[in-house]
Design brief:
By secondary structure, this protein is α/β, with parallel strands linked by helices. It has 13 helices and 14 strands. The strands form 2 sheets. It has a 9-stranded mixed beta sheet, sandwiched between helices. The chain has a 5-stranded mixed beta sheet with strand order 3-8-7-2-4. The longest helix has 15 residues.
Length: 359
C-alpha cells in the first residue's frame, strides 16, 4: 500500500438513506401570528403579559385587529406540528421526511399555513373543511413577554372517517417508522390516535406520545390510559409528570421514581420496553433506559441569551425525533433534543436559523 494513501474513513451515517414520510405526526395545526403590541392592547382583551390561554368570545376580534394594525409574522404552529417541523429542520435532506395530519379551514389563514408548512419542507396533508376557520395562536409581544391566545377552531374538527381512513392518507401512515402525537390531540380525536398507535404496535414500529399539559392527565385520563399500553416513548415535563403521578396514585414526587413507575405500566408490544423522558427546564433530563433511570444535564446557556422558552418542549421532542427516525441510540437522541431546545429558546417563537450546527 502506497505511503500517501490515507486510511479508509469510517462510514458516516448517510442522511440520504432516510426515506420521505418516515416520521408521522398528527395534531392541532395552528397558524402562529406574532406582533409587538402595547399595554393598551393587552388591557383591551384582558391579557396578562406572560400567559397562555384559550380564546374566549371576548377574544374573537383580537386576531383580525392584530393583523390589521400591526406588522405581523406568520409561522406554522401547534405543538405536534412544531416538533415535526424542527425534526425536519434538523434532518435537512431529504425534504418531506416528516408527514403531518390535522384539520384547517378553507380560508386565508389556512392558505398562509399551507405555505408556511411547505416552506419548512414538511409534507402536510390537511383535512380541509369550510365550516370552521383555521386555528390560530396570537403571540402578543410586549418587551420580553409573550401573551399567547390560542383559538383551536378547525383544529378541533379533525375526522378519522373523512381523513385518516382514506386510502391515500392511510398509505402515508403505513410508510412511517416513527409516530409522534402530542397529548393535546386526545381532546380532539382519540379514535384517530388509537388507530395509529395500534398500527405502530402491530408492526413493531415506534409510537411516541407527549403528556403535553397537566389538564390532559386529569380531565382526559380515560383516553390517555387507553392509548398508554401502545406508547413506546412518553415525553413530559416535571409539572406534567407530577400531575400524572398524582392521578395514577403513585404516591411519590420523586421524578426518577415517577419515570420508573410510568415505564412499568402495562404495554402491548412486549418486545420493546417503554422509554420515559421527563424534562425539567434547566434541570437534568430524566430518562428510563432498560431497568435504570439515568439523567442528562442540559446545555449551559447564559440567562441573558434566553429570549422565549415557550417552544422549548416542542423543540426538544423535534430534536429527539430527528435522530430516532435515523435509528440512533438514546444518548444521541437526547443530545439532539438538548441542542434543538437550546437553539429555540434564544429566539422568539418556535423559529430557527437556516441550518442546524449539530454534529
Amino acid at each position: 500500500m502506497a505511503a500517501n494513501q490515507s486510511k479508509p474513513k469510517k462510514p458516516k451515517l448517510d442522511k440520504k438513506t432516510l426515506s420521505q414520510n418516515a416520521l408521522f405526526g398528527m395534531g392541532n395545526p395552528l397558524l402562529d401570528i406574532s406582533a409587538v403590541v402595547d399595554k393598551d392592547f393587552l388591557d383591551k382583551y384582558g391579557l396578562k403579559p406572560n400567559d397562555q390561554i384559550l380564546a374566549e368570545d371576548k377574544h374573537k376580534a383580537l386576531f383580525e385587529e392584530l393583523v390589521k394594525k400591526n406588522s405581523v409574522e406568520y409561522h406554522a404552529g401547534g405543538s405536534t406540528q412544531n416538533s415535526v417541523k424542527i425534526a425536519q429542520w434538523m434532518i435537512q435532506q431529504p425534504h418531506k421526511v416528516a408527514t403531518f395530519f390535522g384539520c384547517i379551514g378553507t380560508d386565508r389563514f389556512g392558505e398562509i399555513l399551507k405555505r408556511k408548512t411547505a416552506e419548512a419542507h414538511v409534507d402536510a396533508r390537511y383535512y380541509e373543511q369550510s365550516e370552521v376557520p383555521t386555528g390560530t395562536c396570537a403571540a402578543c409581544i410586549t418587551g420580553d413577554n409573550r401573551s399567547l391566545v390560542a383559538n383551536l377552531a378547525a383544529a378541533n374538527c379533525y375526522s378519522k372517517e373523512k381523513h385518516l381512513d382514506l386510502e391515500g392518507n392511510w398509505e402515508l401512515v403505513e410508510k412511517a417508522s416513527v409516530y409522534y402525537i402530542a397529548g393535546f390531540f386526545l381532546t380532539v380525536s382519540p379514535e384517530s390516535i388509537m388507530k395509529v398507535a395500534k398500527h405502530a404496535s402491530d408492526n413493531n414500529k415506534i409510537f411516541c406520545l407527549n403528556l403535553s399539559a397537566p389538564f390532559i392527565s386529569t380531565f382526559f385520563k380515560g383516553p390517555l390510559m387507553k392509548v398508554m399500553p401502545f406508547v413506546d416513548i412518553l415525553f413530559g415535563n416535571e409539572m406534567e409528570a407530577a400531575t400524572f403521578a398524582r392521578e395514577q396514585g403513585f404516591e411519590t414526587e420523586d421524578i426518577g421514581e415517577i419515570a420508573r413507575r410510568t415505564q412499568s405500566l402495562p404495554k402491548v408490544n412486549g418486545s420493546r420496553q417503554r422509554t420515559v423522558v421527563f424534562t425539567q427546564g434547566k434541570g437534568d433530563t430524566v430518562v428510563t433506559k432498560g431497568d435504570k433511570v439515568i439523567t442528562f444535564p442540559v446545555l449551559d446557556i447564559d440567562q441573558s441569551d434566553i429570549v422565549d422558552t415557550n417552544g422549548a418542549g416542542d423543540a426538544f421532542v423535534g430534536g429527539f425525533l430527528s435522530e430516532l427516525v435515523q435509528c440512533q441510540p438514546l444518548e444521541q437522541c437526547i443530545r439532539a433534543a438538548h441542542y434543538a431546545a437550546n437553539i429555540i429558546i434564544r429566539r422568539a417563537g418556535c423559529t430557527f436559523p437556516e441550518k442546524p450546527d449539530f454534529h
